[in-house]
Amino acid sequence: MYQVTLSQNAKKFLKKLDKQHKERIITVLERCRIRPHAHVKRLVNSPYFRLRIGNYRVIMNIKDNKLLILVIKIAHRKEIYKE
Questions:
Q1: Do residues 41 and 8 make contact, with C-beta atoms less than 8 angstroms apart?
Q2: What pLDDT was estimated at residue 82?
Q3: What angle do CA 37, 2, 10 make, to 5 degrees?
Q4: How would you label 15-52 residue by residue, b for 16+ Cβ within 10 Å and e otherwise?
Q5: CATH number of 3-76
Q6: Residue 83 has pLDDT above 70, yes or no
Q7: What is the pLDDT of residues 10-31, one digit of tens each?
Q8: What is the Cα–Cα distance from 22 to 9, expressed in whole angstroms?
């Protein structure tokens, strides 16, 4: 099973969310720990992956050799791809 690590940016965003959305994102990330490649899609021209959770998106890096999922950014779908 993979270990999920959140970046400071992701932790900060989760603190701002209401309880319902926060619990849903955490539940989906926990489910993703078992087989992450079944739930994510690779971003075009990028080493990162995207996970859809309702109107929110999670940008993550999956390191298979270390069994690690690094959550880089969590944001609303309108805001996530602007950078």
A1: no
A2: 79
A3: 85
A4: eeeeeebeeebeebbeebeeebeebbeeeeeeeebbbe
A5: 3.30.2310.20
A6: no
A7: 999 999 999 999 999 999 999 9
A8: 15
DSSP β-bridge partners for residue 52 = 57
Domain boundaries, the chain: 3-76
DSSP string, the chain: -PEEEE-HHHHHHHHHS-HHHHHHHHHHHHHHTT-GGGT-EEPTTSS-EEEEETTEEEEEEEETTTTEEEEEEEEETTTTT--
Cβ contact 10:71 at 8 Å: yes
Question: Cα–Cα distance between 70 and 59 in angstroms, integer?
Answer: 9
Look at residues 48, 44, 39 and name the one whose alpha carbon lies nearest to residue 71. 48
Q: Which amino acid is at 72?
A: I
